[in-house]
Every structure is written in structure tokens, then in C-alpha cells.
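Field log, afternoon session.

UNIT: design team B
ACTIVITY: writing a sequence onto a fixed backbone
BACKBONE:
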């Protein structure tokens, strides 16, 4: 790629320092210097305090608990083209981040050549998804709604409406600790169905998708 032109500079956001250092070396070595990792950080917020390269490689699950789709949106607002490089290979997740504005998605289990191809496509203003993930998008049905108990639905509805755990507990006549337990169960069930529900925003999206709350019900 590049054929003697200036190196394509990319940013790398991942919370594993060994991966950041290794990926930077691999990319520069395997592309003969055609790709240069200009900046690496563990969070998107940290990257945004610096000069943001035109292409950013983004891991989805960061230990700061930030929402993956919001991270994509913030990078797009900074005029970066986002290539997701993640261990998550769910078709629903790929759909969600592409809708959020990412131009590429490469699983960490894929060959390094796929990551280089995704960066090359991003540099040309094109999109890239590995063949295996593209096939999954074509054949995978929409993830089924997890089977939630009546009480779990009530807790999800309250949290999705923007209430605190304490407020939900008072409304349902249970303890805040019990609400926390229900939320942990809800998240596990969504995770098992291949639908991320790690953050409050994720829970809101799942509640809207599954008709637990009407679309447009803004969290407080």
C-alpha cells in the first residue's frame, strides 16, 4: 500500500498496553513503514486531548466502562475514520458499530493482513469488513429477545426510563441490592444472546429494541 507516498498515520485505542505496543510494531514492520501508529492511548477521551489521526483503530471493550457506540460517534465527530479491532464477533455488534459510523470492523482473531486491508480501505474513504464477518451479517438472524422474568422486565423498564437503582427499588418494593442482582442477571442474559448490555445506554437500547419502553423514552 501507498507505493512510496507518505505513511498512513493511525491512532490506536486499546486498554492493553502490550497489545498497543505490539500492534504498532507489527503494523509498521508488516507494511514496510506504509502505516505508522502515531499515537496510542487506553481511552477515547485521552486520545481526544491530542491531535487525532485521520484513522483510528478502536477496541470496543475498554476498562473505563465507556459506551462503544458513543466512542465511535465521538471519534467521527473529530473527523476520524474508525476501524474497530475487537475480540467481539457478534453480527449484531458489527451492525451496531457500522450504523454508528465505523468504516471497518476486523476481529482480533483475523490475520494481520485483514487489519492492513481495513486501514488501506479507510485511507481511500472506503469500508471494510472481513469475509467471515460479512458472511455472518448476511446469514445471522437478528438476535432473539432474551427470556426475562416479569420482575426483570420491571427492573429493566425502570432503569431504561432513567431511574436510579434506589428509585426502582422503592417503586417495586424491593431493596437496591436486589435491583443490582436483577440487573446483573439481565446483562448476562443479553450477553448470552449476543447483545451487549454492559452500560446504562446499552440497557436503554435493548429495552427500546425489545419493546420494553417506547422509542424516544429518553433516560433522565
Amino acid at each position: 500500500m501507498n507505493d512510496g507516498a507518505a505513511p498512513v498515520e493511525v491512532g490506536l485505542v486499546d486498554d492493553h498496553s502490550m497489545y498497543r505496543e505490539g500492534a504498532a510494531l507489527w503494523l509498521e514492520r508488516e507494511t514496510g513503514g506504509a502505516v505508522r501508529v502515531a499515537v496510542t492511548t487506553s481511552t477515547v477521551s485521552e486520545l481526544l486531548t491530542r491531535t487525532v489521526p485521520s484513522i483510528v483503530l478502536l477496541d470496543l471493550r475498554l476498562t473505563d466502562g465507556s459506551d462503544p457506540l458513543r466512542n465511535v460517534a465521538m471519534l467521527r465527530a473529530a473527523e476520524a475514520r474508525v476501524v474497530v479491532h475487537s475480540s467481539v464477533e457478534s453480527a449484531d455488534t458489527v451492525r451496531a458499530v457500522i450504523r454508528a459510523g465505523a468504516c471497518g470492523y476486523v476481529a482480533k482473531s483475523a490475520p494481520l493482513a485483514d487489519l492492513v486491508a481495513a486501514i488501506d480501505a479507510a485511507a481511500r474513504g472506503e469500508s471494510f469488513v472481513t469475509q467471515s464477518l460479512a458472511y455472518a451479517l448476511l446469514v445471522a438472524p437478528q438476535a432473539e429477545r432474551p427470556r426475562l422474568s416479569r420482575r426483570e422486565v420491571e427492573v429493566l423498564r425502570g432503569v431504561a426510563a432513567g431511574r436510579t437503582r434506589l428509585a426502582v427499588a422503592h417503586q417495586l418494593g424491593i431493596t437496591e441490592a436486589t435491583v443490582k442482582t436483577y440487573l446483573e442477571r439481565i446483562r448476562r442474559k443479553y450477553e448470552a444472546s449476543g447483545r451487549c448490555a454492559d452500560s446504562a445506554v446499552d440497557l436503554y437500547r435493548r429495552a427500546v429494541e425489545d419493546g420494553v419502553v417506547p422509542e424516544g423514552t429518553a433516560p433522565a
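LOG NOTE: Residues 176-192 form the longest helix (17 residues).
NEXT ACTIVITY: expression trials, pending approval
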